[in-house]
Q: What sequence folds into this?
């Protein structure tokens, strides 16, 4: 369903929804913005998203994961904020690097114009030049289709990173205030996400933090149309009335985002509280309202809550102290585990704790790390940079290989698997990557010839690249539905040394996927192992709820002893959930093997029950 055309004009008017945050960071603006986009999409609108990050970095590519969480990679090679991953997963769209606006990008854009003389000798200032550039960027990017269809979207959801009052976000606040006037009444809706804490001493919901946040927002020239209040429980009616009185927002436009078991409930909370009706009223779109069913999301959220049979995956990494560092990997594991009807349990194993030096310096940490690794049903070694913990990752790969534990290595995880194989099977004790030992006599992993050794930002092999399968009868090709090639996203500057491939293959390591030149190794497998796969790309970035990544589905399937069932399905992203898990109606009988199957697509399957509810 399309937004109606403006009277007397030949094109539709773009609608904008701005999501801001107050009081404290970490309230879940990204999930809220994603859920709002999903809700509007279920109402029949086409939706795109923009994330504004006020930091001076041009992009997220050079930022520490400990400071900013994971770097999400887009098809076009953009290294962006992790919230764009939420947008892609919730809306099932493909965004571009321009959908992530940073202060660095804006200032570089303006300064480049100044150097070219585009400002005709004027004094270049924050207002109007920076603020105009922000507005023009938003309008331009909002018109780029991201859902595979022709023409622009109907609604653009914009998330402003940070918290109201942050000094670095002031130019964006000013620009967005001007922008609300620029697009006009009925085309701009501001949703402010704030905190309503509950004091344990008295158990009372306190409105003062939100009152101050809204007052600060209004003082900067923006007035919220809707309040989305984070709290541990639903807001009492008297609390809503108080917020309405002091924040000048209708009580019907005050929504509670209380704590839920999983984030798939958030769109349901918004729907149940009629958030879409409030947004439509502000955007002057009452004539096209459709009641969003969210049937797939409702069932999926219920399934996730009811799963009880565990599958335990050990993530052996460098940044295990912050789970957001591996956010897309966690989501991909969750998508796959729900698809197999298993309750995901992730054991975080600090890679360095597996090393011999830790046994000497901290025996308890060493024993704890090895206990977690040995009790895991599957092992995943993710990507990373630097030599800290590399030896521990190599030991984890060796443990999985020798004990026939399902293993998936991603990016660096694949590279260390190659190094371990060369050391243990070929007997090359000094086999290494030139990233960690530039003088190694047996370089299994080398710096890519086209890479830059002087500039770090944006110089890796980035974005969607094609991988061609070299073997027709291998696990990875079966998991991907017996395709001849796949397109996955990359982020690396080192690669397997092609000069060593023949020796490794002769020893039993199969390179089942390569690039178009056959010189760049993309997928490795051990044919005689239950599940031992390494990939140079990052399959987690394209995993979606209801459409899990093939390789993650394979890992979970192997970890719970169901790999053959996954391989026999021959369909990437096929969901299988035991009917007993979700209490299917007794008069419905599942298909053979206790499952009902259907390839899932949350966009085209209007009605499909994720409990395997399509019965024979």
A:
């Amino acid at each position: 369903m399309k937004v109606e055309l403006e009277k007397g004009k030949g094109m539709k008017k773009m609608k904008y929804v701005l999501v801001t945050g107050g009081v404290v960071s970490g309230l879940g603006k990204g999930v809220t913005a994603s859920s709002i986009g999903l809700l509007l999409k279920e109402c029949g609108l086409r939706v795109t998203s923009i994330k504004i990050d006020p930091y001076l970095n041009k992009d997220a590519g050079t930022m520490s994961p400990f400071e900013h969480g994971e770097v999400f990679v887009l098809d076009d090679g953009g290294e962006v904020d992790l919230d764009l991953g939420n947008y892609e997963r919730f809306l099932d769209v493909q965004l571009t690097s321009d959908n992530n606006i940073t202060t660095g990008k804006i200032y570089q854009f303006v300064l480049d114009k100044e150097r070219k003389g585009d400002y005709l000798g004027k004094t270049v200032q924050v207002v109007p030049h920076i603020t105009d550039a922000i507005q023009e960027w938003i309008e331009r990017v909002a018109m780029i289709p991201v859902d595979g269809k022709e023409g622009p979207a109907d609604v653009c959801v914009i998330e402003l990173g940070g918290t109201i009052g942050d000094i670095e976000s002031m130019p964006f606040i000013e620009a967005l205030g001007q922008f609300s006037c620029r697009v006009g009444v009925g085309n701009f809706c501001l949703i402010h996400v704030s905190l309503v804490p509950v004091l344990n001493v008295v158990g009372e919901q306190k409105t003062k933090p939100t009152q101050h946040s809204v007052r600060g927002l209004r003082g900067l020239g923006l007035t919220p149309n809707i309040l989305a209040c984070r709290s541990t429980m639903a807001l009492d009616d008297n609390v809503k009335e108080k917020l309405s009185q002091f924040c000048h927002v209708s009580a019907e436009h005050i929504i509670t985002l209380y704590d839920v078991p999983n984030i798939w409930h958030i769109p349901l909370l918004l729907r149940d509280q009629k958030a879409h009706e409030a947004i439509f009223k502000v955007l002057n779109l009452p004539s096209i309202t459709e009641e969003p069913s969210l049937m797939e999301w409702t069932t999926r959220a219920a399934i996730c809550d009811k799963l009880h049979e565990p599958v335990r995956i050990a993530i052996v990494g460098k940044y295990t102290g912050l789970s957001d560092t591996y956010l897309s990997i966690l989501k991909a594991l969750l998508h796959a585990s729900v698809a197999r009807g298993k309750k995901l349990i992730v054991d975080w194993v600090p890679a360095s704790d597996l090393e011999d030096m830790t046994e000497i310096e901290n025996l308890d940490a060493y024993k704890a790390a090895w206990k977690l690794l040995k009790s895991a049903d599957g092992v995943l070694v993710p990507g990373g940079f630097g030599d800290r913990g590399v030896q521990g990752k190599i030991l984890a790969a060796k443990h999985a290989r020798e004990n026939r534990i399902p293993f998936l290595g991603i990016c660096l995880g694949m590279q260390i698997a190659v190094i371990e194989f060369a050391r243990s099977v070929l007997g090359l004790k000094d086999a290494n990557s030139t990233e960690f030992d530039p003088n190694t006599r047996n370089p299994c992993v080398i710096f890519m010839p086209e890479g830059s050794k002087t500039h770090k930002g944006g110089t890796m092999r980035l974005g969607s690249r094609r991988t061609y399968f070299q073997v027709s009868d291998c696990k990875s090709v079966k998991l991907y539905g017996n395709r001849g090639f796949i397109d996955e996203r990359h982020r690396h500057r080192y690669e397997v040394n092609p000069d060593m491939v023949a020796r490794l293959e002769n020893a039993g390591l199969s390179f089942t996927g390569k690039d178009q030149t056959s010189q760049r190794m993309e997928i490795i497998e051990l044919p005689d192992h239950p599940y031992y796969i390494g990939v140079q790309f990052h399959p987690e970035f394209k995993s979606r709820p209801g459409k899990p990544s093939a390789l993650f589905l394979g890992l979970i399937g192997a970890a719970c002893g169901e790999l053959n069932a996954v391989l026999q399905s021959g369909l990437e992203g096929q969901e299988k959930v035991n009917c007993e898990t979700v209490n299917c109606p007794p008069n419905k009988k599942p298909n053979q093997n206790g499952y009902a199957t259907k390839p899932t697509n949350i966009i085209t399957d209007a009605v499909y029950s994720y409990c395997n509810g399509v019965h024979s």
In short: Residues 101 and 382 are 27 Å apart (CA to CA). Residues 126-142 form the longest helix (17 residues). Residues 4-11, 571-616 have pLDDT under 50 and may be disordered. The longest strand covers residues 461-469.
